[in-house]
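User: hey, got a sec? need Carboxypeptidase folded
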Amino acid sequence: RPAEQGDLPVSEALGMASHESQSLLWERMVGQSLPFWKWATPIVHKYFPHTKACTPEDFYRAVNHVRPSLIRVDADEVTYPLHVILRFELEKGVLDGEVSVDELPALWDQRMKDYLGVVPPSAKEGVLQDVHWPSGAIGYFPSYTLGAMMANQIYEAAKDNIEGLEDKISKGQFTELKDWLNKNVHSQGSLHQSADDLLLAATGKRLDPKLFSDYLKGKYCEIYGLTL
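Assistant: Yep! Here you go:
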């Protein structure tokens, strides 16, 4: 956005899902990709010589290992949405008057068992693990998964518009991606009415959940040799 608009409402981010999409794009779409590890592996070998037997594919599989976890911030990108769904369902239940605060610990533990097959040994690893509810950030959790969906959709559009993007990433060349994001996402601020409108302008379509599910299926079926 132009510097002279820095103090105007239009210079603000469009929403927290849009914010999350940008960090998650670099973390997951880039940092957890095989092209990135083709570039990063020699650097890791240099500073951590004991890893020299590890290939880019080894690192790629390691950073994309899928396993149930008790703690949301430790979750992989496949199981992370289940942590978000659990929290959304419970906080909505409280706001709708269908769930009391006293019921939250037991409901949390039961849904962790139902969704992820793990049960917290204490409230510390369960209902009390996040800062969001105590700090008043009610309703924030969906921003993480909406942001992940947006990140994938924006990255796919970037690949369509930047020739040989993944080859560039494998060589440590990130500037074209950053510049494309600056132009199509960051400079837009709050010019658009919604995140959907931002996506429509940047990617040609509004938020499409199928793109995200297809991304997860394609990536992890390949990693784990699965057929769905």
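Quick note: The CA atoms of residues 199 and 206 lie 5 Å apart. Let me know if you need anything else on Carboxypeptidase.
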